[in-house]
Amino acid sequence: MSVTQLIYRSRKNTLPPNGIFAIQDQARRNNAERDLTGVLLFNRDYFLQCLEGDAEQVTRTFRTISDDPRHREVALIAVGDVAERCFPDWSMGLVDSTSPDLRVALRDVLPGYEFTPEALDATTATTLMQRMRTLSYTR
Ligand code: FAD
């Protein structure tokens, strides 16, 4: 069965304390029910999310996410079918993109490791997700 993978970026709006964990809880609950997996990278200003699963579920969930007032300027970076999931074990992994370990692991994918998703093209974003697949410490 083919798997659709969608990657988007957005700018964070101000979140209450623990706001990021509220998003993760909601995402994990819904995604597990919909057989969706993926990862949500964040820093102070941005989100970068990868969603993977059945095409209709990915599209429907992305539409809901796009309307969420907790972020803005939601922009699709890449969408397409992939041979297998990058994050089969994560209903929604949460990764702080400023983690020093992550910076080291991704330095050849993101030279200078400037985590500004606005500058990410589809190929680099897809490669980044494939690389993250190998980073067990980010679970
Ligand atoms: P909804 O998901 O809107 O569901 C309401 C009802 O509609 C459901 O009970 C169901 O009956 C029906 N429904 C809606 N969509 C589907 C579907 N795909 N399949 C079947 N039935 C459906 N939310 C996620 O779920 N997954 C994420 O990965 C995710 N990532 C987020 C990332 C960011 C940066 C932000 C800001 C938000 C994210 N959210 C995510 C939260 C999302 O924006 C909504 O707030 C959340 O999905 C609302 O969940 P809900 O269960 O209250 O309502």
From TrEMBL:
Residue ranges of every copy of the BLUF domain listed in the record: 3-93
Transmembrane segments: none
Domain of life: Bacteria
InterPro entries: Acylphosphatase-like_dom_sf, BLUF_domain
Entries under SUPFAM superfamilies matching the protein: Acylphosphatase/BLUF domain-like
Protein name (record): BLUF domain-containing protein
Species the sequence originates in: Paractinoplanes lichenicola
